[in-house]
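I had to read the description of the data format several times before I understood it. The format is easy to grasp once an entry is in front of the reader. For illustration, here is how one protein appears when written out as sequence plus structure tokens:
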Amino acid sequence: MDVCLRAKNNEEVTRALKLNYNCIVYDRPLNNVLTFIPDQYIHDINILSENSVIITNNIELINNLKNRNIKIAYRVDKPSMNILEYDYFVIEFIPKNIRDLRFYKGKIYIDNIDNLDIYRKLENVKINGIFTNNLDFITNLKKLSLYKNKIA
């Protein structure tokens, strides 16, 4: 499972890369690492790299990004019973029924996970990754032998 850091500044990005985070949530594109960029930081879509993924649920922006072949992470802020199909999904809640994830066709990331017990529960579910605000989360996972660094 990917663990993505929500980095606040360049220092956190540098430290996250040294700790082997597989992806980063940041306010601008980064080279050589999968970067999720929330839509409020998109000012010029021409500067995005092939590793950039825009997090949004704004249909107008989604159509514009699709026309430019830019990867989209659909922000899910409430449960959906409709089948949705995107490159990625960022789910801002933990579904009460994990079976509800079947409605999302794409890679699924759960936002705001920094609790090891919750991480363990999600480990064997159809989830591609998590977003965390905790810079030492991977260090904690390594201590418990829960983190398996995969080479993309």
User: Anything to note?
Assistant: Strands lie at 2-6, 23-25, 34-38, 52-56, 71-76, 84-91, 104-110, 129-132. The mean pLDDT is 87. Residues 142 and 148 are 8 Å apart (CA to CA).
